[in-house]
Amino acid sequence: MNTENKSYTISIYTENNLGLLNRVSSIFLKRHINIESLTTSQSEIENVNRFVIVAPMSAHQAYKIVGQLEKQIEVIKAYAHSDDETIYQETALFKVASDSLFDERQIQNIIKDSHANIVTVSREYFVIEKTGRRHETEQLYQDLKPYKLMQFVRSGRISVTKEPMNISEMLAAF
Amino acid sequence: METKTQTTTKKSKEKMLHISGAEAVVKCLLAEGVDLLYGYPGGAIMPIYDELYKYQEQLQHVLTRHEQGATHAAQGYARVTGKVGVAMATSGPGATNLVTGIADAQIDSTPMVCITGQVGKHLLGTDAFQETDIVGISTPVTKWNYQITEASEIPAILAKAFYIARSGRPGPVLIDITKNAQFDTFDFAYEKCTSIRSYKAVPDVDKKQLLDAASLINKAKKPLIVFGQGVILGEAEAEFKALIEKAGIPAAWTILGLSALESKHPLNVGMVGMHGNYGPNKLTNECDLLIAIGMRFDDRVTGDLSRYAKQAKVIHFDIDPAEIDKNVKTDVAVLGNAKETLGQIIPLVDENAHETWLQEFRDYDAIEFDQVIKEELYPSKDGITMGEVLKEINQVTKGKAVIVSDVGQHQMFACRYAEFNQTKSNITSGGLGTMGFALPAAIGAKMGAPEREVIAIIGDGGYQMTIQELGTIFQTKAAVKIVVLNNEFLGMVRQWQQLFFDKRYASTEMTNPDFVTIAKGYHIDAQRVKKRENLTEAIEEMMASKDSYFLEVCVEKENNVFPMIPTGASVSDIRLS
Fold first, then answer.
1. Which CATH number fits domain B382-554: 3.40.50.970, 3.30.70.580, 1.10.10.10, 1.10.3720.10?
2. Burial of B295 (0-12, 13-18, 19+ CB in 10 A)
3. Kindly report the CA angle at B491 between B565 and B495, in degrees rounded to 5?
4. Do A174 and B197 touch (CB under 8 A)?
5. Residue A70 is nearest to which of B135, B144, B322, comparing CB atoms?
6. ipTM surpassing 0.95, yes or no?
7. Cβ neighbours of residue B3 closer than 8 Å, sequence gap 6 or more
């Protein structure tokens, strides 16, 4: 069995019920797997939620995690995908002191080159949003760090799969 | 109390009963066929207890002496009847005291519904008196759990709770009910739950899997079956027996599978695992086909996985898809309820006998008898052995009794030596290994099968973990036979200390109280046996009693359980001494 760790994206379709987040995360905790990011939102089906969890694990662990997740009463279907099987993005927000925008010409080039958007500008600060792969938001973070970066936050990964999911058919078959 | 708007269900055609949430809970239990439950009252569950008082003719509540006892009693009841056991407790400490029993039921797949009271909805999250997040605490050890905060939720949620607990691979469900939901009134109507859209209780049987499995079985020269509780939970004993008899396959059991096949059946080759029999353990690494039926390859069964049945093809019959390839890689997985899958595979397998292969088991049996069993059952030394106590009990019960064992050396002796000729008769804490399980579980077993003899085999350590349940036995007159095998040690730990920690007996020696006096304090007939010549008579006297009975047998202090597969060793490395 392959025991080498790599990054897996675990996608879980669930009912929208209270307490399920706890139940899902406890399955990772029990196996001592540190969740790198976790996002939950509505899915393409009404009243069905989708978790996207990124965590490092072995292929066999990923297989077993999916089995344990699907065993939960309110889980409709779970999948484990490697990075190349999904299309994924993250969003980062950067809050930078406004004086740097006017004092440092360089910062305007950074924003332009990174294809980031300015979300809001005030006298004290401005907020930049960048959506992309991890290395892109990471690069922008490194670039902006010297310029009075007041706050930085990055979302968990969201992803869709290249393969079809067919959850509606599955729901009809239960 | 906060005020609530009353909700009406849509079933307008039926005559609605306008009742409190508390009364609705009782009506739901009755609708699910519950006539007996175990529990302990307290502040946050008083409205439900008030209704239990009114309904006591239809629904018997057994007051245990500790909430943990309530869960184990419910487990004992469930294991012996196949029905859902029910335990009830108040919020806070009442609820947390259930957790061990819930975890035990989860790992041993026992159907159980636990109902806990909770502080009023308006107090949630305020650190109110006896408030605890039992839903959060019990999440990892329940098949499902839910907090009810509105009376109108009660019928649908309890229906779902019972459906989930008993369907598919059974397990414990906890329902937490806030006090306001117990007091509030609503229009009650009950409808049983028969499906949940995100939950597939039993996988569909796949014909191809059956054909592939049958083909492997028909080709095998040295097939070995290892069966677990799935045979019992699936009520597949008859199909199982028909299969092994037709295909002539030797069948070994895990301790939770014990009693699914009668002990003396010629194809019953004994117990697998750490203290199992020599033959089935050794031959696990000799067979060419390993057929696992309703078992989960627990580490106590497999030993070192990297040296477990590597030479064999593996077929795994299970109801739970998550068990497939979890620990042992299978060649063919057959998903479904064992009754269905085994029933359907019988016509596909060829008649066979495997006589020379079976002889290999008998040869190993002879070695084990010579080097282990003979001295255990017919000791040459003065001290009484645990094995001979079981042998004497067999003489009286003839394999008809329910044997409830606790956890430790005596448990292994009970599983190795007790004889069974009826299913659902071996009740023990397998997966969790909960000391203190046996005494309350025996109460539940006796109430579930009042016509049968129920004998609890307990060590002196585990006995003192739930000894307070003697009070329950005294009050309910449950005619449980209690046998404490007293070696004045936490014997299994002491054995490991002897073998692996250079005899440093850290905190395993026990100075025990006078157990006979304690039993008599509860007005339970009791005696102590110290000498072999008194053993048979004492057991006969116990079994002749119509009431509960306590028998303490002072056994040899430093005997060990053998054979043994040391932790981390392969099943092939099983030791006889």
1. 3.40.50.970
2. buried
3. 40
4. yes
5. B322
6. no
7. none
Output the pLDDT for position B29: 98
Cβ within 8 Å of residue B468, ≥6 positions away: B65, B66, B69
Q: How far apart are CA B515 and CA B484, in angstroms?
A: 9
CB B239 within 8 A of CB B218: no
Give the tens place of pLDDT for each residue, B345-382.
999 999 999 999 999 999 999 999 999 999 999 999 99
Domain of A129, in residue numbers: 88-154
CATH architecture of B17-188: 3-Layer(aba) Sandwich (3.40)
Question: Both tokens of residue B383?
Answer: 């001290």
User: How far does the CA of residue B197 sit from the closest CA of chain A (Å)?
Assistant: 5
Beta carbons of B315 and B249 less than 8 angstroms apart: no
Shared-domain flag, residues A18 and A39: yes
B340 in active site? no
- The count of other CB atoms within 10 Å of the CB of residue A162 is 9
Q: Cβ A26–B145 below 8 Å, yes or no?
A: no
**pLDDT tens figures, B436-445:** 999 999 999 9
Of the candidates A85, A118, A141, which is a domain's last residue?
Answer: A85
Of B27, B179, B241, B391, catalytic: B179
The domain segmentation of chain B, as residue ranges, is 17-188, 207-360, 382-554
Indicate whether A22 belongs to any domain: yes
Instruction: Judge whether B153 counts as a catalytic residue.
Output: no
Question: Which of A85, A103, A125 corresponds to the end of one domain?
Answer: A85
The pTM (predicted TM-score) of the whole model is 0.95
Residues in B touching A15 (Cβ below 8 Å): 197-198
Measured in whole angstroms, how far is the alpha carbon of residue B293 from the centre of its chain? Answer: 17
Contact assignment for B139 to A174 by CB distance below 8 Å = no
How confident is the model over A48-88, as pLDDT tens digits?
A: 999 999 999 999 999 999 999 999 999 999 999 999 999 99
What would the DSSP string read from start to end of A41-89? EE-SSTTEEEEEEEEEE-HHHHHHHHHHHHHSTTEEEEEEEEGGGEEEE
Residues A100, A74 share a domain: no
Superfamily of structural domain B207-360: TPP-binding domain (3.40.50.1220)
On whether any CB of chain B is under 8 Å from the CB of A3, the answer is no
pLDDT of residue A103: 82
Q: Is residue A39 situated within a structural domain?
A: yes
Of A22, A67, A76, the CB nearest to B322: A67
Residue B125, exposed/middle/buried by CB under 10 A (0-12, 13-18, 19+)?
Answer: exposed
Task: Confirm whether A122 is domain-assigned.
Answer: yes
The CATH number of whichever domain residue A149 belongs to comes to: 3.30.70.1150
Strand segments, DSSP code E, in B75-222 are 85-89, 112-118, 144-148, 172-178, 185-188
Please tell me whether residues A109 and A66 are part of one structural domain: no
Task: Tell me, yes or no, if B179 is annotated catalytic.
Answer: yes
Q: How many domains does chain A have?
A: 2
What is residue A149's three-state secondary structure? strand
